[in-house]
Design brief:
Elements: E1 3-7, H1 12-23, E2 28-32, H2 43-48, E3 56-59, E4 62-65, H3 67-78, H4 86-116, H5 124-144, H6 158-163, H7 181-191, H8 199-202
Parallel strand pairs: 1-2
Antiparallel strand pairs: 1-3, 3-4
Helix pairs in contact: 1-3, 4-5
The structure holds glutathione.
Glutathione (GSH) binds near residues 52, 53 and 67.
Length: about 210
């Protein structure tokens, strides 16, 4: 049976998994969740994921949520992106946890507040606070990538797939690639991998292109 991913184009957390599946050449079908119309809050969706979040990965009787857990599962199945040894696997986990706590979580929230909320509902104080925290996280990643091609080891891993998730989107949230040359080169490196696709080319968007 083809694997399925509950997702939507604007969801960077979903993109992590969509990209892992695509780069690993696994057949999968997206199931569109109309997030901005409350799709992740419906009783039907809650029955699929009690946490009310995308992505949800379905493979036969396996239903798995949390992008980090899904990436880890896919590595076990495909043998890809999980690191070369136990030490690298622990390093990858460290960055995936950091990403979920400090990086993609804040980037996703900020991009939502600055682009998808109606203009008169955008909370400027919250935007300023989250922007400051996200800037510090960008500095952490930029420094780590100094002299490195990949976040962990010498090839792409789940650490890269997790951390890059929000950085190819066009909607502004204070991230300019020119301000972070190491991140800029790293994003080009990922995008040059055979089979790479932009999130909007992998998953249906809720907001069509302007
Ligand atoms: N840590 C989760 C975050 C997932 C997440 O926040 N997904 C967003 C869409 S990008 C969502 O569904 N949010 C619903 C909500 O916050 O109510 C993961 O990595 O899967």
């Amino acid at each position: 049976m083809t694997k399925q991913l509950y997702c939507f184009g604007e969801s960077g957390h979903s993109y992590k998994v969509a990209l892992a599946l695509t780069l690993a050449e696994v057949d999968w079908d997206p199931i569109f969740v109309d997030f901005f119309a409350g799709g992740s809050r419906s009783p039907e969706f809650r029955a699929v994921n009690e946490m009310g979040e995308c992505p949800v990965y379905v493979d036969d009787d396996l239903v798995l949520t949390q992008s980090g857990a899904i990436l880890d599962h896919l590595s076990k199945v495909t043998g890809k992106f999980g690191g070369a040894n136990d030490r690298e696997a622990s390093e990858i986990l460290r960055w995936v946890l950091w990403d979920n706590h400090k990086f993609s979580s804040q980037a996703g929230m900020l991009r939502f507040l600055m682009n998808f909320l109606p203009e008169d509902k955008r909370p400027q104080e919250v935007i300023a606070f989250v922007s400051g925290r996200l800037k510090a996280a960008f500095a952490t990643l930029e420094a780590h990538l100094e002299g490195r091609d990949w976040i962990v080891g010498d090839t792409i891993t789940n650490a890269d797939l997790s951390c890059c998730a929000y950085l190819y989107y066009p909607e502004p949230f204070g991230f300019e690639r020119k301000d972070y040359p190491n991140i800029d080169r790293w994003l080009d490196r990922i995008a040059a991998l055979p089979g790479w696709k932009h999130p909007y080319d992998l998953m249906r968007r809720a907001f069509p292109a302007a």
